[in-house]
Amino acid sequence: MNSSMIVGECYRGGNFAVREVENDRVKLVPFVSSLHADLFFQGSVNHPELFRFLPYGPYDSAAEFVEGLIEGFINSDPGAALYAIIDKTHSFPHSPSPSQADFAGLIGYLNTSTTHLKTEIGCITILPPFQRTHVTTNAVGLLMEYALNSPSFSGLGLRRVQWQANELNFQSVQTAERMGFKREGTLRWDRVLPSDKGKPGNSTQSRAGDPKSDCVGRHTAILAICWDDWENGGREEVLRLMARRK
C-alpha cells in the first residue's frame, strides 16, 4: 500500500492515539497553547473573515482563544484533537519551535468514537499566507490517511471520516468533495449561531416566541468518506492530489 505519511510520537490519551503525522511538505503536531496560541492569534487577528463560517471566533486575544476553543471545547472532549499545521517548505532547518514563517494554521479531529470507528475532520483554519497553496490538501490528506489506513500501516483503521460545513460555505464543501468526501445530506436548522459575530445564517425568517430570535440558524452540509471508498481508489486519488507540485 502506498502512503506519504510518517507517524511520530504519541502525545496523549483520550479516545484514540494522538500522534504527529507528516510528509515531505507539511507536519501536523498536537496543538500546545504555550507554543502555538499566540502564533495563531497574531496570524488571524487582522482576518476576521477566517471565522465567518465557523461556530466560534473571532477572538480579541490569544488568552480568549485558549479559553474559548482550546480549554472550553478541545481539551474537554476526549473525542477531539487539535493540530498545529507546520509548512515544512517554509521551515528553518533544525528550528526547535514554529514561527510565523511556517505556522500555517489549525486542523483537527472531532467527535471521534473508537467504539463506532468514526471521526470528523474539522476546525480547519488556514492562515492567509498559506491559502491556495499545498497546505490544505496535504493537511487534510494526512488526517485522512491516519484515520482510514489500517493499524498495520500506522493508521487508526476507522470506517468513517465525516466533514460538516455551513451549507453556505461553498469553498469548504468543494474542498471536501475534491478530497473524495461524498455529500450525504443537509441537517436543517442544525445550529444556533452567535448573534454578535456576523455569522451568515441560512434564513432571515423568524418566528414569534423563538427563545433566540436574535440569533441566526445554520443548515449544515454533511459529507463523508468511508473505508470502502478509501480502499477502492480514494487513497490513490488523495495521494495524487498531495503529490501535485502545481
UniProtKB/TrEMBL annotation:
GO terms for molecular function: protein N-terminal-serine acetyltransferase activity; protein-N-terminal-alanine acetyltransferase activity. Residues 191-214 are annotated as: Disordered. It holds the Pfam family Acetyltransf_3. SUPFAM superfamilies: Acyl-CoA N-acyltransferases (Nat) (SSF55729). It comes from the Eukaryota. Residues 25-182 form the N-acetyltransferase domain. PANTHER family: FAMILY ACETYLTRANSFERASE, PUTATIVE-RELATED, RIBOSOMAL-PROTEIN-SERINE ACETYLTRANSFERASE. This is N-acetyltransferase domain-containing protein. It comes from Pisolithus tinctorius Marx 270.
